[in-house]
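Problem statement: downstream parser choked on a complex file, so we are re-checking the raw output for the magnesium ion run. The parser issue turned out to be on our end (a line-ending mismatch), but while we're here, posting the original submission so the record is complete.
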Amino acid sequence: MSTGTTVTTTPSSTFGAGVECFVCGAANAVSALQCRECSASLALVHDAKAQEREPKVVSIVGESNVGKTVYLGFLLDMLSQRAGDFEAIPKGAYSIDLQQVVISHMARRQFPPKTPMEADRWYWAYYQILQKATNKWVDLVMPDMAGESLAAEVATPKTFRVINSLLSKSAGTILLVDAAMAANGSAHPDFFALKMISYIDAMHRAKRDERITTPTAIVLCKADHCPECFDHPRRFVQANLNRLWNLTESRFANVEFFACSVVGSLGYAASETDGYVTPVPLHTALRGVLEPFQWIIEQV
Ligand SMILES: Nc1nc2c(ncn2[C@@H]2O[C@H](COP(=O)(O)OP(=O)(O)O)[C@@H](O)[C@H]2O)c(=O)[nH]1
Ligand SMILES: [Mg+2]
Ligand SMILES: [Zn+2]
């Protein structure tokens, strides 16, 4: 029985004179808008070439459900509203999608739906950003990765090659950590962050006595549950995420700690049919969204 799907393969020679994806290195047709392998925006390659500068990639990593999608959506929205004297130019409608999904859900008092696991369905946001005070332009490529793909890659490196090449090409990394969980005494966020950091460390294959210089912002998410994070993020990490703290101290030369929250107050709603409880963001109140990004921009 026929399945009804036809698979068309394109000979690689077709792409001989094409463009090479910045993230995964795959050859693509000149006219393509997105990489056929990893879905990264190819406008990045074209624009970077035209402006004769290397694109600067900032990646956002963290466990599934830590708040990556929400964080990235609000960050992009703040940038496009010129927060912090930044000017942001989205490249392609696709880049605006993520922002729109987050903003429109939150306006309806819902958290956005989960990010799909396959790389070709991640949202790749590409913005050109100008910091007006310093007249510094950066190309920001920020994929909204599924936490499960990250976890799979960290557990078995090279499962998702795109993650590996993305992280190794990143000029800066924002690592999100679930502060609410850590404050509740769970060791889980500490271990996940530890794995992530040791993965990045191994990837750089730096000499034993050389520390990694890539700016790394560690962001304590959902800090509305533990507001003390805002006063002393560093102290919070040292006390509640001590394994992470120790590894970053010994291996990372350029690391900073931040706290972040996007909701003012939460309600909880239980489904009438199955009793499943979902958090309802009653109103949006952004705290600490721009700061980690601003710090990264100062470093790169
Ligand atoms: N209290 C609180 N919860 C948050 C915040 N940001 C995200 N969440 C919760 O975390 C869940 C997962 O967020 P999401 O961005 O989809 O996580 P991702 O899997 O890392 O992309 C949301 O559905 C919310 O329940 C925050 O700032 N405060
Ligand atoms: Mg997500
Ligand atoms: Zn690619």
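For whoever reads this later: The longest helix spans residues 188-204.
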